[in-house]
Amino acid sequence: MSSPGTLAFCGRLLRRQLVLAVRRPIEIGNPLLFFAMVVALFPLGLGPAPDKLADFAPGILWIIALLSNLLTSDGVFRSDFDDGSLEQLMLSPQPLYMSVLSYVTAHWLITGLLLALASPVFALMLNLPTGAIATLFLSLLLGTALLSLLGAIGAALTVGLKRGGMLISLLILPFYMPVLIFGSAAVKAAVTGAPAGPYLAIIGAMLCLAVALAPIAIAAGLRISVDA
User: Fold this and answer.
1) What count of other Cβ atoms lies within 10 Å of the Cβ of residue 110?
2) How does pLDDT run across 118-161, given as a tens digit for each residue?
3) Where in the cell is it found (predicted)?
4) What is the pLDDT of residue 1?
5) Do the beta carbons of residue 72 and residue 30 sit within 8 Å?
6) Sign, Cα dihedral of 176, 170, 95, 114
7) Is a pLDDT exceeding 60 seen at residue 164?
8) 2: left (phi > 0), else alpha (psi -120 to 50), else beta?
9) Can you tell me the distance from the alpha carbon of 99 to that of 166, in angstroms, rounded to the nearest whole number?
10) Cα distance between residue 157 and residue 160, in whole Å
11) What is d(CA 11, CA 119) in angstroms, rounded to the nearest whole number?
12) Over the Cα atoms of the chain, what is R_g?
């Protein structure tokens, strides 16, 4: 029996990861619950003044999205490493570059995409002007995909460690900073009426670069972790 093509194999791998996530709904609900809890806490700390909340809303929403992504990055390869299927995947004839893209895509679909879809509700809770909500959605759509790629690099390097969550933060958080800066700047520009397109274009350019290079780093990190 012939082995499936690369695209068919990656499609099956992506479907497998999504099915596993659906069977563990806590993995899907945790980022959204964390997002909702922190958004609800900020008015208690800053005060309920609508103008003050609106000023801080772009930065608040982006920081929470970044932390939500960071909290889930450790589990991208963890379960497959523990049961040995990750090692079998690396021995398969399929290119590891494409396989890790399937893992990252699944992680983005169950974290970043859901956060982007839910962000308008949280934005209204923080009194973000309705004219900036579309920019917030687009910036999170692009930015969370970039965060998933960067987070997967740290996950690959620490998957062999029993408690790699804190180490991922130390390794990857500095690379998250440009995404946070340009993402929140795009939303702030939309709030003030300035063009947000240049900031979104920069995030898109970084995402294209990450799609080209991050899977190479992820594959190298997995080989190091599995062979160690």
Assistant:
1) 23
2) 888 888 888 888 889 999 999 999 999 999 999 999 888 888 77
3) Cell inner membrane
4) 44
5) yes
6) negative
7) no
8) beta
9) 25
10) 8
11) 28
12) 18
